[in-house]
Structures are given as structure tokens and as C-alpha cells.
């Protein structure tokens, strides 16, 4: 009798294990690459400050010319609109967040380029919305993300 019960138990465990494997959700892998490791310190800071904002694309580089790397985050806000801001790394984790500005709705890409070959490193944000593409070059000035030059951003941003 005991042997029969343990046999049934073993079968149940085996079946549960198999079905567990086959029904493993594949959506876990669907999440696009953020551009930085999930344990990035500034990304963690951003998420802690704004749990309602879902990062979709990030880039990690020193954009304030002070030797510490900062983080640019394109995210989806509470209203499902894409926005972006920068997390400026400061000592003692007193990081500064720039005011969010509109970001491209789809195919967001962030590239770094020192366009004037001096001072702060500039960055280019590009993307699209319903087939309209746009890009703009930004620089951090007084803790704000300033659009220096661009084309079509109003058509591709949310
Ligand atoms: Ca910096
Ligand atoms: Ca520069």
C-alpha cells in the first residue's frame, strides 16, 4: 500500500515537473536589451525613484565631463508615452535626474558623439513613430537635456 502511494506521488511529481517545463513562459526572453546590465547602479536608482516608469533603452557614459559615467534612460511613463531623462552620477548616491522630455515612440537608439570635440560628450537620440523618423543631438547644460540640433523629432516623439 505504502509502495503504491509513493509510486503515485512519484508520478505526480514527474508529471508536474514536465508540465512545468513545457509551459515555461517564453515572454521572459522577449524583453529587448536595455543597453546596460539590469544591475546598473544608476538604473537601479532611476527605478527606485520612479517605479511607474518602465525603462526601454539606456546608455551609460560620462556626459557631464566630470569623470563619472551617467545614464540616459528612455522610458515609458504612466500614460504609456515615451520620455527620456538622464541620471547624472553624483558622489554619495546623490544622483540628479534631469527633467523628462519627449522621446521617440519606437526604434529608439542612443549614440555618443563629441560633435565639437570639446567639453561635454554630446549624444544623439533617434527613433521613429508610424514610419516617421527623427533624431536630435543633445548636451547636458545646467542639469537639463538640451536639444542642440535635430530633424523630425516632433514627428517621431510621443
Ligand atoms: Ca558624469
Ligand atoms: Ca562636446
Automatic annotation (TrEMBL):
Keyword field: Lipoprotein, Signal
PROSITE patterns, per this entry? PROKAR_LIPOPROTEIN (PS51257)
Query: Which residues does UniProt assign to the signal peptide?
Result: 1-21
Q: Which organism is it from?
A: Peptoclostridium acidaminophilum DSM 3953
**Name of this protein:** Putative lipoprotein
